[in-house]
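Re: [ENG-882] Designed sequences occasionally contain unexpected residues at chain ends

Forwarding the minimal case from QA. Structure tokens:
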């Protein structure tokens, strides 16, 4: 399912900040119950009726608990399934209200603007994401568990901003420094390799069809 693959890719680039709630935050139990009801519908994001049903549940959850990050995050896959990209952008804005320094959310927003053809807004969001990535990486050890993810995302931002030379230099260096680990089928290396030598248009194709581009 293309929709689920797209969202899976977005989740992959956002392992650092997405899905986390502040330590002091306590979700409303009814909002949690409503949010959990969408789980069986995740497999049917290409079905409009399933998407609309899920969004009704999630809208109710966020109406009860306006700080429920997970409920807003879950809305994205169903809004994408309905091709309601403008509403998806508004949803990312809610996520950014809760996580104003989440680089991956700016990347999501940039991708959505790219889809609707607003290249000016897309560029602005990718630039914000890149700035945050650089700021974090400046003080991060290469042994940090988030280093590969942040460095890869930095390269993605550079590709989307048109700096292919610098992006490929970063990706090649990252690829060369990753250990071969047959236990994990070299997932990280395959992912990095799938991004190399791609321009913005090709990268968007990779995002939409990750299985096709990994063969």
């Amino acid at each position: 399912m293309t929709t689920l693959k797209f969202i899976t890719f977005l989740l992959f680039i956002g392992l650092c900040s997405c899905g986390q709630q502040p330590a002091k935050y306590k979700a409303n139990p009814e909002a949690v119950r409503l949010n959990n009801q969408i789980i069986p519908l995740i497999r049917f994001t290409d079905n409009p009726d399933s998407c609309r049903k899920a969004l009704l549940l999630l809208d109710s959850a966020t109406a009860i608990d306006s700080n429920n990050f997970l409920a807003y995050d879950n809305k994205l896959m169903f809004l994408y399934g309905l091709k309601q990209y403008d509403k998806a952008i508004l949803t990312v804005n809610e996520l950014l209200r809760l996580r104003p320094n989440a680089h991956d959310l700016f990347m999501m927003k940039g991708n959505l603007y790219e889809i609707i053809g607003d290249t000016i807004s897309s560029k602005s969001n990718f630039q914000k994401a890149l700035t945050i990535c650089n700021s974090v990486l400046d003080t991060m050890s290469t042994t940090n568990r988030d280093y590969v993810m942040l460095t890869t995302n930095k390269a993605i931002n550079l590709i989307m901003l048109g700096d292919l030379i610098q992006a490929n230099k970063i990706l090649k260096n990252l690829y060369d420094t990753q250990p071969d680990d047959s236990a994990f089928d070299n997932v990280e290396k395959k992912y990095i390799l799938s991004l190399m030598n791609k321009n913005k248009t090709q990268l968007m194709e990779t995002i939409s069809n990750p299985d096709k581009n990994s063969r």
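QA comment: On inspection the terminal residues look reasonable. The mean pLDDT is 87. Proposing we downgrade this to a documentation issue.
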